[in-house]
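Handout, page 2. Input:
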Amino acid sequence: MCTGGRIKYHLVENITRPESTITFVGYQATGTLGRRILDGEKVVRILGSKYPVKAKIERIHGFSAHADKNELLDWLKNMQTPPKQIFVVHGEEKSAKEFRDFISEKTGWNVTVPEYNQQVTLN
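Output:
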């Protein structure tokens, strides 16, 4: 997501160079520097300074450290006892709600996407 660490220094050294290619292989969340670069921003702020994006920007789809929705569903279905409640707390709002609906439709279980700062009491 390019939000911290050495990647910022690599970007500073390469993002203004037209002969450079910056390749993204992972998901870039909305609002992050990586996503803004992928979305085509012409100038980005890195480490407090602005840099024009002159490097070629590429993306390789298909690399992920996460299971897909069917693999997650298979994992859930292997539980000995169905859970009382499932909370989907990862991903952007739209995809989290779609995943909630998917699990609910396939299992009939209670699935929730909590609201920001929502508190839940577990019994």
